Fold this sequence. Notes:
By secondary structure, this protein is α/β, with parallel strands linked by helices.
Amino acid sequence: MKAAVLEKLEELVVKEVKTPEIDDDSALLKVRACAVCGSDLRIYRTGNSRVHLPQIIGHEISGEIVKVGKNVTRVRVGDRVALGADVPCGECVFCEEGIGNVCQSNHAIGYQFQGGFAQYMVLNKMTILYGPIHRIPDDGVFAEYTLSEPLACILNAMENSPVTIGDTVAIIGCGPIGCMMIPVVKRMGAGKVICVERNSERQKIASESGADVIIDPSVQEMRDEVMRQTGGIGADVVLTATPVPQMQQKALTMARNRGRVNFFGGLPANNCEVSLDTNLIHYKELQVCGTHGSLPRHHRKAVHLIQEGIINVKPFITHHYPLSEIQQAFDVAASRQCMRVVVEPWEG
């Protein structure tokens, strides 16, 4: 099969590799689409302690089951499925408590397990037993269902930092994740959504997605504008959907007293030390949390939201590339002159 192998940092090589074999407890997926996530870009540039190179990365995946082991009953040959990324071990105390996204083993597709930038991949026993694998409709567009993975992560964030009716929500960063947050928080009852984004194309998509106010931080002081938009009170919920450390600092200043601040976007490993004014947390009684990945139940709900048209993900996909052009796909994704970039391993 053809695969894009990350041989070393910043070196993706498309080449022929052996098609993986399955055992009695696993299944083989024909990958039809795999989107390029910001996490993939970070792995590509700076690595990750869970990714041992060479490795095939990519974790926003959809495809078709083409082979199953004799003990596998969860999926059948011919099933069209979407995958989440985080795979609970099913045995540690965190999995027992139902929070397998922070499982101690921290296994994930595209990290310890082979990812989706290849024509085929194995769904191993752990993934079959406990992982986020959900069927998609026969007429579902594979590329669209790759976004069930980031949508599931957003649903997890909304549990950690809930939005209630009439809340003002500030979203910092309007890439595909930030823009996808807009219809989600609107559905949850947000009264006003304020988005912070300097890219004009992304501003336009944020507005079309339902943002009420767009702040351009290159020409406006974001904290002052949020205060003006909220009568000097601040936002009820602030979500940082960007890998920029300074935005986490800014988020604390934009939240109202007893507001919820969610550090959603992960930071690069070589630039993740952030100096925070903890007096803001103390005196404003802020609830500050992070969100990492999602649970299989979040992914199931995300697939349902896409399938029923409740969340329209089509506007958040702007580019498609064959596997042979994955380097260009990564370059475009890194340029920020796009929304989600989808790689499709099977040409024609």
